Amino acid sequence: VRNNISGDVDHKGTLAAVQASWLQSNVGGAQQRFLRQKSHFRQYWKWLKFGVRGESEFNEKQSFGNDSLQSGSYRFEQWEVFVGNNDSLPHGLEFTYLTRTDYTPSPQDLSPSTLANAFTVNGRARIARTGNIKAGFTYRLLENLIDSLNPLDRTLTGRFQYRQRLLKNAINLTTFYESGSGQEARREFTYVQVAAGQGLYAWVDYNNDGIQQLDEFEIAQFPSDAKYIRVFQQTNDYVRTNFNKFSQVAILNPAAIWRNKTDIRKTLSKFSVQVTYNTERKTQREDLIESLNPFK
């Protein structure tokens, strides 16, 4: 059984919209109940806008004759309030507060597992008629309600985007940069033996003690020695990491200025060129300058 409902009102600067879906099914000896809702309220007042956005999902899977929930069950609730400039203005600033709670299965119910609170500031500015800059910063505090060893995770992320059109759109430039910090699970690896020729690594017992050690595995020189593969495993230890991303895109479109020419430029106008450069780094270095540099 599935039911859907949706509606919206947009009148004189006021927008209210809601979407909801309810699904109940009995498949494979299990009962599933799924509920999703999205809601949005926004109000324009002179040069100001403000509003609320909400989203939630509830997915419960339960076997017949058993009160326990299956592992695929989950639930989350997310609400966001915002205030900022009208989108039609050339320059703007917007402040956002978001809170989200995630739930995971307990023996007979869904219990809160994480609580996130995020504060975001976004700004934009127009440069002349052909360029614009967008920038934003987000600070998030994630509270792990079921992990006493790593109860808090604080992250700070910054984004910058610059777009410029030159020579009547013959040249389009886009620069994007993002940097931030956070935590991620430390990964450990081990070597697992497989059939000869099916692996990538060989074990060389350098100290002749008959015990496999991590520094005794190397890339196999011959297929017959390739008897091991490397397997990564997540751990319960978390490490502080810094990351950054950089992207530069240049698009050349000669047709914008040479379409009506009659010489070689007419032929060149039939072609366009796009050049893209991307880099992404992740490091545990504590030096702020080095962690922000995408080229080092």
How would you describe this structure to a colleague?
- This protein has 296 residues and is mainly β.
- 5% of the residues lie in helices and 66% in strands.
- The strands form two sheets. Strands 1-2-3-4-5-6-7-8-9-10-13-14 form a twelve-stranded antiparallel β-sheet, with no helix packed on it. The protein has a two-stranded antiparallel ribbon with strand order 11-12.
- The mean pLDDT is 87.
Label this structure with key terms.
single chain; 296 residues; mainly beta; 12-stranded antiparallel β-sheet; 3 helices
* Number of helices, where a helix is a run of at least 4 consecutive DSSP H or I residues: 3
SS elements, strand count = 14
Query: Which percent band covers the strand fraction?
Result: over 45%
Helical residues, percent: under 10%
- The chain-level structural class is mainly beta
Order of helices and strands: EEEEEEEEEEEEEHHEH
Largest sheet: 12 strands, antiparallel
Beginning-to-end CA distance, first to last residue: 56 Å
Low-confidence sequence ranges: none
Whole-number average pLDDT?
87
- Radius of gyration, CA atoms, in whole angstroms: 27 Å
Tell the overall outline.
Answer: extended
Q: Order of strands across the widest beta sheet? A: 1-2-3-4-5-6-7-8-9-10-13-14
